[in-house]
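Collaboration report, partner site 2.

Our partner group contributed sequences for two proteins of shared interest, and the home lab folded both. The records are reproduced in the order in which they were received, starting with the first partner submission.
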Amino acid sequence: MSSKEQRRRERRPGRHSKLDQPRQRAPAQSKATTRRPVDTDSEEDERPARVGKPNSTLKRPVPPSPTANRQHLPKRAAPAPTASVNQPTAVTSNPASGLQARSVSTALGQPPLQTSRSQNVGIGQTPAVLEEPRSESEEESSGDDWARVRIEELLDTSDEEAIARERPQGVPDRQELTDEEESQDDEHAQEDRMSVVLSDNEDPDIYNTEDEWEEYDDTIRIIAEEAVPPSKFGEITYTESLLQIWAESNHISVAAFAGFARMVHDPGFNIDEVPYSLKTIKKLRRKLPLDTIHAHIVPVEKLDGDSKTKSTATCYYFDPKDVVKNWLENPQIYSFCHFGLARWSDCVREIFQGWLWRESVLAAISRYPLYTLIDNFKVYLSHVYPGAHLLFTSKKGNIPLRITGVFERLRAKDKQHDETTEAEEYDVWISVNIIVIRRADLDTFSINFETEALTLPKITFDEQVSVYGTSTSTEPITGYLVLYDFVLPLRIVKDLKPTKVFVDRNHHDVDPEAPAESAKTSANYYVSHFLPLEKGSTPKKKKLIDLFGAPKTTHQPTPPTITTRARSQAPERRAPLKPRGLESEKIIVHELVHTRHLRYLLAEDEIRKGEVSMAKLQEDSENGKKHIGVVIDFYTDKFGTFRTTHRSSGGMYSGLNNLNQAGRDQPRNHSLLGFVPNGGSFETAAEPIVTSLRKAARGFPCTTAHEGLGEVTVHVKVLSMLADMAESNGIAGIKSVGCVAPCRFCGLKREQFGLPCFHNKKSTKLKLLRQRHICSRIRRQAFDLKTKKAQEKLLMPHSIHRLPAVMESFGPAFNPFIQTALDTSHAEAKGLGEHAIGIFIDRMLSDNVGKKEFTRCLRAQHFPVGVSRVPNPTAHMRSLKMSEVSLLISVMPFLIKSMNANLKIFNRNVHALYNEREGEVVTTDWIKQQAIGFFLVVARANSAVFSRVIRDPESKLSISTIPTYDDLDERTLEYRTALANIATTLETLPTAGERLAARAPGQAVANRSRTKKVRLDTLETLPNFHTGVHSAENARLYGTNANVDSPIKERVHGLYKNLVPHTNYVEMDLAFCKYWNVMNAIRKVNDKSICAVNHPMQKSLARMPRNSDEGAYSINNEGPSSVLRMKELVRFPDYRFGSLIGKHERKKLNLDATIFNKPVGSRMIQGLWSAYTSYDYPYAHFPLTGFERDVGKLQWWQSVNVYDEGTESKLRIKPGQVIAIREEKDPEKADGYAVVIGICTHQPFGSDYDHLFFYVRWLVKDRPDPDMGGLMRYRLESIESAANSTHTKSSEWFNYVGLPSISKRKTPHFAQDAEAPNFYWLNEYFISSSL
């Protein structure tokens, strides 16, 4: 050892290499491993090869354990003499050089990486690891090698002691092996490992105190693939040669070849029927039930292409009517659809539970017409539909009502009868706005004004109005509409009469069919202003039900009968009590708003457009004709691959909103409509599609998959259109995001964006909303001007186009300012989410220490099994996907928490800034806590914005984890406030690029592409910042924001987006349409659609191997798990097992496979008996304590994949994963949580089936953690403490659970504490998306 190295080790005691310590036992060398001997006299290549970062040569890195994070390669020392490459290899080490063999896994502090071949790598070459071809089960278990590390972390000493006590006598444990057995064990473990030649001067640090990467001495010598000598070539058949040449030359994937092999080995496959030309195969498409592909010529607007660019292009598309027919004729789709009225629910999940569905007649046309009628007589008084007006009979006097929605609500069960029917019964309800016409009505509904002097005109009432709502004046009675939705069942208003109410929009309505001024004089009531409710109002939603009854008046006394006398005298004997809950009822009004800011309901637009006629519906109902409403969405997006080139093509898609949430989450249920050709615009390409949708809204005949329904008239309702922000503005007729007022929902100017607009009064927000009739009036004023310049000058402050958009011009009834939905993924995740992460990484973290420490924590973070690799935002910020941004935000608090505060992770400017602001010296821990608090606010807001379930405010449920619409509004405001505050604080700090430019100007350009540029001074003026004002309202209209989010549609779009870069600029629109047409036709045949009944291909499709047919079960078809015969469960039809854990690995993991000779009272026997009860066996049904041949053994597996029919999703379970266990005795009780230690199967004596079990350790609540925003902290119970637990039922604490015990609810994310591995945080704000 050199003197310099000796002095360095004296300065850093305790940090020397473990290789310097004497080894107690040398491991046996692998037969396939060779080493290059060191020749001290050789002068060839005296410069030692340099190695970069640790793990850089491993193809499949293994997650390091917390105790092995700092075991790495040796530090660079003096150049050592190297051996000649021409010298023969040997397996002995050179004592003179001090070199000795050591496995790669030991050097890196990680579990060994399995390989079967190895060879020497020359000096200076990049080492690599190539994997041997694996079986199907091994392919599925890819990445399972780190299971041993996770299990060793989870098992503590108490667990080992408990297992040792249960081990039968005479069977030695891991510490009791004899020397011979131990040597054999080492030889067996060493056979599959790779040996390396390392320097004796090893330093276990990954980087020094200055956080600089250390340089290393010798290159790792790994045999990647050993050359085969000619004597061992063996024989190869002619078929094998052809298959190998074909597969290698055509780059056939593993999945494609597996499908080819299954097809060839199918008993019905006839090789004589295989044609020699692919064209023959493609001609078979004409025998499929294909749809017609239409085309039309569109002008090319962008002429900046190449020399082959033409002035016109061909647009290919499908007729939306054909797409709708495909959905309705498919029984696999139709059976999961909802056709009818909107439904009220305590927890809103589906889109038909949103408010827009209530407003539409087309969406629920199968339930119309609805009437108010006289009891016992079929005398129809009035049609009930959104937009109609009724005169409500109240105890305080008759009140005019405006119906705003019709929905159904589950009927309450009759408590007098215990018998209940399986079919749920619903009552029809309506939501209404009241129109106050008397001053007394203000007191009846507790309407209070914030200011005594309201803005003109003041509220004035006709004092001559009677309690019956009539007046002696010939003029209509003036009323004021209260903008709040009261609800009442239709059975209460069934005998109410209709009334005429004129809502004054004449001055702002340019529709030729708008009511004329004479309509005012013929109406009974006139409304020109409405009263919006401000924050703090607490109205009673069912107030009208309490007020229902005949009005009391002295002008019409009650007849003097005994019964009525008793009723009239009863209230006089009692004290004049106020209505129940009157003290808590309050409606706060800030100002009157003119009705020009009151938007039309969807039903009003449909009637005005001629799509719905109540008289026609009544006639068809009497004649027995049936109608069905099909609700769809329309999505468009461009292929971003060619945004920087001459191409600008894109796709158009549609989804069926009648499907439930699980059905809409499947990309196959979304259909292609067509493509926007290169150079064309969406306006011209979509014109024939939009025109067809307008015709489809009026109805067309179609046959459905419903048995006995026959032919019906189908009406198509376009409920929403989706696109990114720029394209959405174009659909709404608004200019691009750089205009004066870029928001398509409101007309607020860009310079007014920011936090103040979130605090505006409700009345102010309503006046700022864009209205279609107001924009039409502005366009009409612009058309009256002579010059185009004058027109643009008039339109510029409003940021609207001269011509309305294509949907408004050629399409069905459509309000572009509310039906062009907010895409929260683009706005929140890709918009502000990137800025939030970029601020932390670019402004706060130090360039070397901080970013490398963040990278270390990111690699050590245990994500759920369903989450693939997450890109490192310190280097790939610009390439993050929307789902990756949301995922990172939800785990950022835990990543920051695990960062080492003893290092200089924040740059000095951050410390100086906070020291100046706080007036004292702040620590790194304090700054860490500020960053954790910020990302907790961001994650909390995102969990509400992207929540798939919203709790109704009127619901009696008190589930704090499910947000309400008010919670969504509050969390969004909290997020924007925190983001604005941190932006204001850090806006003076230089970015990473600016800091790099100051140190090395030549590297500034290279760094610019690594992270997204964040301009904090203009952050509040971004449209994505402002869209948070409309997020809660968007969720209320569509049920949840997730119902109109774009990720699923992005996946469909990605099918073609990923192919476009490989088309070599060739127009592939027609080829893509044909591909979709063929695949869709095959699905028709497979799903037995009406149009493909008795198709010849159905027999062939029925013979194709699938995971499992309906009612059947499947398992691995090769490997050790293929011999298993699993217990058939309806909920879990498919099983896919990973690799089988061998005997030697089980010993290391303390997984016991033997059951015989265990005492009856042991935790293992008791746990298995308890787990068998989940399979509906009695307790202790199977004998588990007899001889080995009777009780069998446990087989342990690396992982298991199952398909859950209950949730219609796949589950992948591995050791170290947290699973939710349901409570069998009390389903309403909250689920329990446990960490999987092992996965085993067992076939008991007396049964022909194998059963799947999980060996677990339970998680119990510890306390809310104030440092993590009050997140619940869980403690990992040891096996010993679980056995002795007395605070809960002992059966719940057995360490074996059966597969049926897994809860149907989604398992939340648990984040492990890096400082205390036995503790976990329940991450309530975790968001995992597959998009």
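Second partner submission, folded after the first:
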Amino acid sequence: MDINRSTLCVNLRRQPDGYGFSVMERSVHPKVMISEVSPGTTADACGLIRPGDIVLGVNGLDLTNVEYDQALKILRSLSGDDIAQLHLKTPDRCSTNLKIPNKHDKTKANGVSTKHVNGVERINVDRKMSNGLLQNRNGILDKNNVCGSVKNVKKSGNARMNSNGETKNISGPPLPEREYQLNNSREENNNYQTSASATKCCPITGQKTAIKMKNLIQDKTSSDTLHAKAQEAVACSEGHCVGSLMTQATKHSSKNPRPKEDVLVQAEEFIEQYYASIGKSLTQGHKERLHQVKACIEKTGTYDLTYEELSFGAKTAWRNAPRCIGRIQWSRLKIFDARYIKTAKEMFEALCTHVKYATNGGNIQSAITVFPQRTDGKHDFRVWNAQFIRYAGYRQPDGTVIGDPANVDFTEHICEELHWKPKGGMFDVLPLVLQANGEDPELFELPPDLVLEIPLKHPQYPWFEELNLKWFAVPGVSSMMFDCGGLEFTAAPFNGWYMGTEVGARDLCDTTRYNITKTVGLRMGLDVKKTTSLWRDRVLVEVNIAVLHSYREAGVTITDHHTASETFMKFAENEQRLRGGYAADWVWIVPPMSGSLTPVFHQEMLMYRLKPSYEYQDDPWESHEWKNRAPRIKKKYKLRTLVKAAYFASILMSRVLSKRVKCTIIYATETGKSEGFAETLYKSFKQIFNVKVVCMEDYNIDDLLDESLLLIVTSTFGSGDPPVNGENCFFPHYRSMDTNRRPFHYSVFALGSSSYSDSFCAFGHRVDEMLELIGANRMYPLAEGDDEYGQEETFFEWANGVFMAACDLFDVGDSEVRSKISNVLPAKDNSWADGKFRLKNLNESEEPDISQALSKLHNRKVVSCCITQRQQLQSPKSSRETLLVKMEAVGATLQSDISYEPGDHVGIYAANSPKLVDIILEKLVDTQYPDQLVQLEVGSDSNSKQKDLGEPRVWESFRRMPPCTLRTAFSRFIDITTPPSQATLKMLATLATGDCADLSVLATDIVAYEEWKRRRVPNFADVLEEFPSLMVPSTFVLTQLPLLQHRFYSISSSPEMHRGEIHATVSVIQYQSEHGVDREGVCSSWFKRMKMGETIPCFTRQTPAFHMPDDRSLPIIMVGPGTGIAPFRGFWQQRSVEKVKTKSTKSSESKAVLGKAYLYFGCRQSSLDNIYAREIESAKNEGSITGYHVALSREPGKPKTYVQDVLRKNKKQVYDLLVNKGAHLYICGDVGMAADVTDTIVGILKKLGKMTLEQATIYVSELKNAHRLHKDIFGAKLHGWVGIENDVGTNKKSQNKRKQH
């Protein structure tokens, strides 16, 4: 008896019930094989003996050539021995090499790794691999069979040994790798006594065979042993995870039919599964069936399943499907055996029977129809549809899609190529495309009465039904392959029933599907331009509510995702109990909405692949060989021909591009939005220009002055900083550039957020100014895209403008080509022309609610508040006014729609001056009935021949303006105070009936226009009065003047002190233009004149960068001159509430003392405009404010003092708070003041911290990066001019205006 690397020598001590293992007969010598190891016995505890091991000898007796009966007698004679020494051989193509090194030997030899574990040698026995792959009874396996959401899994997978048929009768668990412990102190003549604490391990993961999975909610752990039966690899490895890929394994292809050897192995495994499931494993019937199957495979390469085996396989495949959440119903699957079918027509008839059964009048039943199995790969049966019921998709010339975008290619390239006539609707059921026996596919229309469809409506929104949405009842998957017992059933369509999110979230709301989110959001009155409004989330919930409501009202089976998750957990519990685990793909099991609210989200899962299964396979049109036709979807060319064609095309294209004007599009982005806009630009410009798109960090600055046309799309990060891929690009180099070289043309689109008012689009402006400084020509004005409002619309307007300007500048493309190409950019033509718009009188007596109308107009949620108090904060002797305006929510809208924190903003939609509105109504030509309810409409031709045929135009509502009276439109919706643009003046000039030379000059001469605008600050009424010959219709004003925008105010209250209220501190703006005309602010003057109880349309905007620190024990410094004190009133009120809470709470954790708070306020005179003086003193007395300082800039008899002067006076305290106490610094006011205060802080740090100027500046930057420096900044607006600092040049006006409060 030869003991080599494949053998083990094990000593077992007998227990009262024996040694704990059973044996069975092998067909070849050696005849004896371990068949079972009893749990809890000596054999089990040692960890060395496994089913499948071959017994070579016992106690020195060689059994290799002994017949089974004689060997059995020898083994039975061991009953009287205390210790039995077994010599075992591991199964064929596996070897185990044991080496027990001494205590100091840490080398690795012969595949055995040694590691000291608490003084005990742990030895991992490696099973060798054949051809680098682990072997399995059902075929060769890759190492990686397991993937999951379980922590600390080093490798994925498991393997089971192949013994060339010698273990055919073995049942029980697979054979994991052996890991055991030996104690060196117990070595005796190389007879090793194993430790009872031995541990069994999985050969691939390195973990114990039972992988533990934790439920994070229940804090319970379960163990998965079923993964050991995994038969196919997943592609995960130590270095990567592919768990989120749609197709994780190679798709099954008809070009590679399964070899006979693999069929044999998998058939044997499946037959064993089946007979074990009916309790007849190892019976005579089992053996006979296995013999029959083997003989058939050996002869023909395949075999046939009985109906019972087919039924068991189909159900088990569903049970094994790791991506299905509804598997609890697996045993109720109905099997339609269609393996007798020969033709496509018979396939269609079988599918009709399937659909009818599955629909069941709405009481959906799960079913599968199994068509003939694959033979040689050339006679496959296939259903070409991904699902046997699905809607068509039709691509339009402008790139949009009518119908389901997921099915556009299948509709165009398959169905239409096979002569299906498209209907052009949103919900056209696609025909079935069926392939029988490898023949060309045929088309079959499903009878309409077979397809149950459900119109969708919402239980609370009646308008939802007007969207005319619907969906079908039966979700049937028809493209997957049923893999069972080594046989491949390439056509096996099956169905379950819908989980609501499959329709509501994926089919209807996915951006690559019907994508109805924005449409529904607008109908709901949500702010769809602001991601922080979470409008998509709200839409998603309501659409899913509509789906569930509609299906249930129609009596059609559907389940919600919460119920589905709970039933899956029950399924998992059952599987854990019955099979020791379950395969599950966590990425797919967790529903596509409200994931963390479902129990499956918190359950660790293990992903592995069991057989039988449903598998992805290649698309049939990719491999089908056409018999009778060569459609466009399948053209084959020789590689040489393709290379020649490609080379020729590239030559032609290079010649064309070389003659085109060069255009470079540069983007810099943090989130990817700028890159997306750059790609959109590319789509239009590439039609006429030689275009390339490049990231700013990849751009070669040496190429800059060789450009012809440069377009830059860039965002701004933080407080005016460039995006990460825009740093160190232009600015380190531009001063050294040669400005005498040929100038190029450029335009900039700057993205930003008005939440950062002090740095809005700052980097884009810096780029624009730098390009101008080096001599480039600004071809088109910079445009600012605000992600708080209409960024995309602004971009499309700029993109169309810059495209047409570039075409004009370089004289390329005729008007027709330009117009066609500009349609790639989805901006609508809203330009005014005589007869294009009209006003339609409406019979309704009441106008729509103003807040609802504003919601639709501005695509944001606007709610109604009413004014309850207005208080003049300045002295009656003051020439200026500052108001405390208190607003109260109408109904319960405040809590649900405009909740806020101290530091947030309130946006107010004000009303224009009635006097101004009356002047305009008097000057327009068609405003005889200003209080008549009207609808603005736009006319269009329904087709190109309509105008020639004299047919009437088609009129539709113009969405820019809601139904209202002209008085309301000019009062609440149209901005009539902003000076008209030159483009507006140019259009107005065409409406003059007399001499308007001056107006034409203003419309064309930028210098004259800017001077006129600065001197007069004209509103639209001034223009009508200055040029009385203008005959302007109301439709011009409604369509060409900008919309009246909201005004932001810092909220001056605490939501906990003043529940249901919002307070605002408003400085009333009144001034004279240089022309001597009185002007006033739109919103502040509206607050001044409104009556108590009047409605205020408003919304709140969160400004988390200006919230109080989460750690309230940290000190804060508040700097706010004038109305800059507004947010700090909310701060001290909130601190007062929290101070009371702290006193009333007994728990030690809640007794944390509020940090110190210091206020620096600035005004002119203590007797005139020291607003909130009493409140501040009261807050100091109660401890909400630790101390405050007031800077007086116009106090009689005293020198002018500003907040920065007071900060310098208290520099030691400021330094200590910022450097030693971790204080947060808050600055609120105009941009000039904020810059001065920042400079002051730098000076304090430099002086007291003994820093250089650079070090002090860096320290302030670090305060900002640590979120300890907070700014709420606004431009210092005076007489229509806004002073803003820039980094390229210093604006002297800004410096002069800085100290104005």
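Feedback sent to the partner group on the second submission included the following. The chain has a mean pLDDT of 80. The longest strand covers residues 863-872.
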